[in-house]
Amino acid sequence: MKTRILLIFLAAASALRAQQPSVPDLEYGRAGEISLKLDLYLPKGAGPHPLIVWIHGGGFMAGDKRQIFWTPLLRETERGYAVASVNYRLSGQATFPAPFQDVRAAIRWLRANAQKYAINAECIVVGGESAGGYLAALLGTAGAVAVFDTFPMTNSKQSSRVQGVVDFFGPTDFLQMDAGTPRSCEKPMVHDAVDSPESRLLGCNLQKCPEKAKIADPITYVSKDTPPFLILHGTADCLVAPSQSQLLYDALKAAGARASLHLLPELSHGDRRFISGENEKLVNEFLDSVLKR
After folding, report:
1. Average pLDDT over the chain, rounded to whole?
2. How far apart are CA 36 and CA 271, in angstroms?
3. What burial class does residue 26 get, using C-beta atoms within 10 Å of its C-beta: 0-12 exposed, 13-18 middle, 19+ buried?
4. What number is the average pLDDT over the span 197-223?
5. Helices 98-112 and 131-142 meet at what angle, rounded to 10?
6. What's the chain look like in SS3?
7. Which of 12-21, 36-45, 233-242 has the lowest mean pLDDT?
8. Tell me, what CATH number does 199's domain have?
9. Lowest CB count within 10 Å: 74, 91, 208, 216, which one?
10. Strands 119-129 and 164-168, how do they pair?
11. Please, are residues 89 and 137 in contact by the beta-carbon 8 Å criterion?
12. Number of domains in the chain
């Protein structure tokens, strides 16, 4: 039954995507032989339109820009927002900071081409789930940190700052992922293992490269100038413990940044129950508060 419901849900999402005016497979950069691409969904009207950039999950090892977890995102064009869904290098292709440099390059490309696509370059919110939520959070806290500019890219004069972040159950402090696992989890993932998604991302066993893990941690860069965050996480998440979002939220509040954390009872990692009218209202209210100026 669950499989049938999921298939119906995905089919409906696919049909909705097909109705959107879109510009697929736009190349925003290259990394050697790898073409980095994004899909753009545009609302009707002259614009300029505020922009929502979505980053897919997949444990840094898998996933694609066409797989949008937050399916209500595709309805945002009806509310006057442009939407971009981006790909980035996976851990089998390159280690950190490569995927973060990629999504920064995507933001810069979108700003450089804002006039062409009727985008408001000063109104950009980034969101994502799991690994995508992590990259979105890192864009929010470290979008302008110069240490990550070592990767050659075009549009280097454009800013990679964003004006807001929507983070669905993304990890933050890799070194504390195992310690925060809910007691109800019977067979939790061991993130400290050498073959864990986070170890593969960093290219090292987490506990043997704590300095690199700290550089990769969005919390490291939190300041009073960090843009607003909306964070959603399930309390029954056995892949990325809800304590990860709590750590990020606590750091944001301590720095004086605007942040809201919603811990949703009994929801697991990637739970389809995140997709609800109540949560859609919550996300839309956040988007409007940031993007409608």
Report:
1. 92
2. 28
3. middle
4. 97
5. 70
6. CHHHHHHHHHHHHHHHHHHCCEEEEEEEEEECCEEEEEEEECCCCCCCEEEEEEECCCCCCCCCCCCCCCHHHHHHHHHCCEEEEECCCCCCCCCCCHHHHHHHHHHHHHHHCCCCCCEEEEEEEEEEECHHHHHHHHHHHHCCCHHHHHCCCCCCCCCCCCCEEEEECCCCCHHHCCCCCCCCCCCCCCCCCCCCHHHHHHCCCHHHCHHHHHHCCHHHHCCCCCCCEEEEEECCCCCCCHHHHHHHHHHHHHHCCCEEEEEECCCCCCCHHHCCHHHHHHHHHHHHHHHCC
7. 12-21
8. 3.40.50.1820
9. 208
10. parallel
11. no
12. 1
Gap between the terminal Cα atoms of the chain: 44
Cα separations in angstroms, 222 against 25, 139, 212:
33, 11, 17
In this structure, what token pair is assigned to residue 207?
């506990």
* Residue 12: per-residue pLDDT: 44
Half-sphere exposure of 219 (CA within 13 A, CB side): 19
* Amino acid making up residue 276: S
- What lies within 8 Å, CB to CB, of 183 at 6+ separation is none
**pLDDT single digits (tens) 215-227:** 999 999 999 999 9
Cβ–Cβ < 8 Å for 23, 98: no
Q: What is the pTM of this model?
A: 0.92
Residue found under tokens 């310690």: 179
CA distances from 249 to 124, 157, 172, 230 (A): 21, 31, 10, 9
Report DSSP state, residue 113. T
- In terms of residue numbers, what domain contains 62? 2-291
Residue 217, phi then psi, degrees to nearest 5: -85, 120
Residue from 204, 240, 200 nearest 91 by CA: 200
